[in-house]
Design brief:
single chain; mainly beta; Elongation Factor Tu (Ef-tu), domain 3; 2 domains; six-stranded antiparallel barrel; 9% helix; Ribosomal_uL3_CS; rRNA-binding; RNA-binding
């Protein structure tokens, strides 16, 4: 689907017409420059490569790629399909691509939580009671398999490990406001990532 690249500014809350307080996320969206046009003849599919946020220093290859579009190298580049309007190399797309009231999907990289146990990572209840002689098993995973048969632990067993820092997509977030003069998009609810994290927003 068509979309744009943005940057997470932070969260706030606004009141709707009924006086209900709604949590929402403010995203700086665009302006995005078309840095490459994919065609069926050359690439085998049709898409637009968009660039967002100027890079201070870049490789010669990145500078040359951006120069073809008449712009500077970008920090974040992503491809989108399904644009209704005809766009060519060097065109700029702003936050006005979105309208208030429509629904969007927002994808980004979630916050990294480091190595976490099963209670935090998978929502386990912990084992047993805090008393009756138990010593150090309060947040342990418990049994992870049978004994002599099958004599192994199955793949995919929920265990402690690295949590977060993975691609997450949140779907069907309603656009509450479009502030065109400041390139801001306000969506209902929360989106993945820390402040200033890059996001892709799709219709």
């Amino acid at each position: 689907m068509s979309g744009l690249i943005g940057k997470k500014i932070g969260m706030t809350s606004i009141f709707d017409e009924n006086g209900k307080n709604m949590p929402c996320t403010v995203i700086e969206v665009g302006p995005c420059v078309v840095t490459q046009v994919r065609t069926k003849e050359v690439d085998g599919y049709e898409a637009l490569q968009l660039g967002f946020d100027d890079k201070k220093t870049a490789t010669k290859a990145a500078e040359g790629h951006a120069k073809k579009a008449g712009t500077v190298a970008k920090r974040k580049v992503a491809e989108f399909q399904g644009f209704e309007e005809e766009l060519k190399l060097g065109d700029t797309i702003t936050v006005e691509h979105f309208a208030e009231g429509e629904f969007v999907d927002v994808a980004g990289t979630s916050k990294g939580k480091g190595f976490q146990g099963v209670v935090k990572r998978h929502g386990f209840g912990g084992v047993g009671q805090a008393t009756h002689g138990q010593h150090n098993r309060l947040r342990a995973p418990g049994s992870i398999g049978a004994a002599s048969y099958p004599a192994r632990v199955f793949k995919g067993m929920k265990m402690a490990g690295q949590m977060g820092n993975e691609k997450v997509k949140v779907q069907n977030l309603r656009v509450l406001k479009v502030v065109a003069e400041k390139n801001l998009l306000v969506v209902k609810g929360c989106v993945p990532g820390h402040k200033n994290a890059y996001l892709t927003i799709q219709k």
